[in-house]
Amino acid sequence: MTHQALLTILAVILVPAVARAGDEKTTAARMAQEHQHDKPVPTPAATEEPSHPVSAAEVTYGEVAGKPAHGYLAAPKEAKGSLPGLIVIHEWWGLNDNIRSVTRRLAGEGYQALAIDLYGGATADNPAAATKLMNGVLADTATGAANLKQAVAYLKGKGVKKIGVIGWCFGGGWSLQTALLAPDDIKATVIYYGHLETDPAKLAILKAPVIGFFGAADNSIPPTSVHAFEDALKKQGKPVEVHVYDGAGHAFANSSGGSYRPEAAKDAWQRTTAFFAKYLQGK
Known about the structure:
Layout: H1 3-14, H2 24-34, E1 54-64, E2 67-76, E3 85-89, H3 97-107, E4 112-116, H4 127-138, H5 141-157, E5 163-168, H6 170-181, E6 186-192, H7 200-203, E7 210-215, H8 223-235, E8 240-245, H9 262-280
């Protein structure tokens, strides 16, 4: 049996039934296939410095299922007064150095950026391990939801008035779920190639404006589902903006992986920071 065939079988076996959208099993399996030859190996872009100096530290932002929830908090060094907050949700590799780097970059734009951890401290450096971690969370989405609610409460406890959320891949789906779990608290939602809800009834409670970034060559989050999501929100009069990049596949913005596409990633980053500035900073 080839390595590729083994990973495909693992992706299917390890995906359990979940309480969220019914097609998430298929999405997770396809995501594993998209990553089957990938490793989170940093490129020079993965070490890009924030636009302004920041300070960062490991923090405990709550308790979930009887265990402390540990994360990574970054903020501008010379910030004065209350700042907007961001919840940063890792991709399927976990809260690794790449996500910490991105969190610092986001903080440098003028935010208290909290990178949460849905894996309880574990990270993966190969697709099979990442698949197992991802599906452990999807098997117990109630605990994942509680984790995100703790993150919201933590930032509010620090005096944050406006909160945005951003996630990639596995975390992109949870970014949308966070906006649905806390519709009165989340003021801006950014989704990078994450699982999308297309049921109008479930999207009806969404209040935050949404921007999403996807690859035209992504087989796990195909453009058809992206446009179905966009249409469902537009029909309800909700602010939504999606960008689908030609020639880009899944994880095109991950500067520590083999799918990285610099031009698409740069455009998405500029749109992300402008989006957050508009809805969280009033710029």
